[in-house]
Amino acid sequence: MKAVIKVGTSTLAHPTGNLNIRRMEALCRILSDLKNAGHEIILVSSGAIGMGVGKLNLGSRPSDTAGKQAAAAVGQCELMYTYDKLFSEYNHTVAQILLTADDLRHEDRHRNFENTMQRLLALRVLPVINENDTVATEEIEIGDNDTLAAIVAVSVRADLLVLLSDIDGLFTADPRKDPDAKLISRVEKLDDSIMALGGGKGSSLGTGGMQTKLRAAKIATGAGCDMVISNGAYPEKLYDILDGKDIGTRFIASREA
Length: 257
Prior knowledge:
Oligomer: single chain
Structural class: alpha/beta
Strand content: 15-25%
Largest sheet: 8 strands, mixed
Helix content: 40-55%
Strand order of the largest sheet: 3-4-2-1-5-7-8-6
Number of helices: 10
Radius of gyration: 17 Å
Shape: globular
């Protein structure tokens, strides 16, 4: 199976912005094991700005573009150093790919990205993809890594997209506010009633939220790729997710695509 796994800032970092070492070690160990089992894994990783905030002791995410870009420049180094170190322990090679919207919008550049991805996977490399927050401005930014992960999944013709977040899946209401909210384990059709369940922004260090995840589901399922939202606090659930078990919320692809 070819799977794109997206991890949010809330999965990789503590609320302080500092690295969640235990969780990141578990994630890299499990992804390495899934690769050992024969799966092709592509990782879309948030966390550059969040880690930069922690490393620079800023206290909170900058609101200005230059501040965010500076934090990303520092944090991306930390992020890739950690991935390289952890995956190397399990004899897996990682490659860093940083993208802007222009790279995906322009036909030639998009084709170059697809060709590079095909070659990396053929070489059994584990690509780690992030938006190029250091140079991205409003005109050329993708905006969130949920959307980026969905575009990547479509580009590489993945079988499955998994979004690891700080929530168990899609609920009938916001479970942080409504104790009667129930998990929706399976979504066959992304109709207006489902799309209306999207809330606002996610964690204070990230850019996503349920709204961006539902948009990602629309992109992925429309191109024939199933998508799962699951809680990144439990990376071991990836085993069951790739086995097709009911974990989190699974959005079923349009098979006619």
